[in-house]
Amino acid sequence: MSLADDLLTGKRFFDVGRYDAALICFERILAQAPNQYDAMRAMVITLNAMGRAADALEVCEKARRHHGKRPEYYHLAAQSLEQLGRIDEARRAFEEAIALAPAAVHHYYGLSRLVRFRPGDFYLDKLEMLAKNIYRLSDVEKIELHFALGKAYDDLGRVEEAFHHFAAGNLLRRAQIQYDEAMWLGLFQAMQDVFTPEAIAAFHGVGDPSDVPIFVIGMPRSGTTLVEQILASHPKVFGAGEPLYLHQFLGQGLLGADFPHSLAALKPADLRRFGGTYATRLKTHAPEAARIVDKLPTNFVLAGLIHLVLPRARILHVKRDPLDTCFSCFANLFSQQIDYSYDLGELGRYYRGYAVLMEHWHRVLPPGTILDVSYERLVADFETEARRIVAHVGLEWNPDCLDFYRTDRVVHTLSAAQVREPLYARAVGRAAPYQPFLEPLRNALREG
C-alpha cells in the first residue's frame, strides 16, 4: 500500500470513528517518512479525538520543529492544550496562529471559545472586519465566523446581534448535513416498544457482573461534562470521556443486524458477552480504576440495554432546563454529529423525544437504576448533590470532588474550558435573554 493509500484509508477510518485503525495507518506512513506533513497533521487530529492530547502535543512540537511556524500547527497545539486544561497556553497558541494567518477564520473561532469578549476587544474588531467581506468566504468559514461573532456579541449582551449570527451559522450548517429526523424519533419509539417491563424481567441479572462502568447520560450541554469531572476527581475513578464502544459494537452486529428488534431472539449468553466485551474495552483506559466513566450523552438511547448487559453499572442522567439546554446547543458548533441541533424545530422535537424516552426508562427499569441529577440543583447546592452523585456510584465520599476544576485530566468536549473554572451559576437561565427569538423551539417542545 502506498503512502497516499495509507493516508486515504486512515482518513476513512477516522471519519467512522475507528481512531485506533486510523492511527495505525498514519504511524505506518511516518515510519517510512518521519516528517510527512499530512500524516503528522492527521495523527495530531486523531490523537486529540482519542483524548491523547499530550501525545498529540508532542507530535505537534516535532512537526513545528521540522516544518517551521505554520499556523495550522499552532491551531492544533491549541486544541491539545485546551483538552489538557492549559487554557492560557491554548489561548496564546490560537493568538499565534492568528498572527501568522490573520485572514483564517477558524483560528478566531477556536479562540472565541476560550475568551470572554469585552467592549473594544481587539479580536472582535478583526471578526467584524472579516464579516464585511463575508461573501468571499467558503461556507465552512462563514459558519465559523457566524458562531464566533455570535459568541462575542453574546458575551457583550448584544442579544439581537448574537442571535442573528447564531441563526445564520445554524442555517448554513443545516444545509450541509442530512439529518433523518424520522429515523431518530422512530428509534426512540422502537426502544419503548421493545424494552417492555416483560423484556426487562426476562433478562434480569443475566449480563456481565462488572461494577466498573459508570454511564453519564443526557442531552449535550446539560452538564454531563461537569458531572464526569466531579466523579473523575475521586481517586478511585477515571473519566474516559465519550467512547463510542456501545454504538460501534451494535454497528458490528454483536446483538444481531436488526437491533433493537432482535432483543427477543437473543440468549442470556449474548447479553453477557456483549457486556463483557464492553467492560474489557473500557478497562483498557485505566486497568486499576475501581470505576470508569463513559459520558457519551447519546447513551441515553441505550439505557435499557446498558442495564441488561451490565446490571451493576451505575447510570446518572443529567437534566437541565429544556430551553437552556436547547439554546446552548443552538449557540454552539459541534465537532461531533449532533445534527439535530441546527434547527430550532428539529432540536425541540428531538428534546421532546429524549424526555419521553427517559420517562420510559424510569418506568421499566428497577427503582434506583438511574439517578437523575438536576443541573440547577447541582449549582445551587453543590456539595449535597456531589455527595449524592458519589454515593450512587458506590464509593465513599472524597473532598477532592469539590475541587473538580483542579483535576488534571484530558477533557475533549465543548465544556473543556468551563470545567477548569470553579462552579458558576451564569449558565442557569441561559435562554432567558433570547426568549423573543425562541418561539419555534417552544412550539416544538410543546408538540404532542
Automatic annotation (TrEMBL):
<keyword id="KW-0802">TPR repeat</keyword>
<dbReference type="InterPro" id="IPR011990">
    <property type="entry name" value="TPR-like_helical_dom_sf"/>
</dbReference>
<protein>
    <submittedName>
        <fullName>Tetratricopeptide (TPR) repeat protein</fullName>
    </submittedName>
</protein>
<dbReference type="Pfam" id="PF12895">
    <property type="entry name" value="ANAPC3"/>
</dbReference>
<dbReference type="GO" id="GO:0008476">
    <property type="term" value="F:protein-tyrosine sulfotransferase activity"/>
</dbReference>
<keyword id="KW-0808">Transferase</keyword>
<dbReference type="InterPro" id="IPR027417">
    <property type="entry name" value="P-loop_NTPase"/>
</dbReference>
<dbReference type="InterPro" id="IPR019734">
    <property type="entry name" value="TPR_rpt"/>
</dbReference>
<feature type="repeat" description="TPR">
    <location>
        <begin position="71"/>
        <end position="104"/>
    </location>
</feature>
<dbReference type="InterPro" id="IPR026634">
    <property type="entry name" value="TPST-like"/>
</dbReference>
<dbReference type="Pfam" id="PF13469">
    <property type="entry name" value="Sulfotransfer_3"/>
</dbReference>
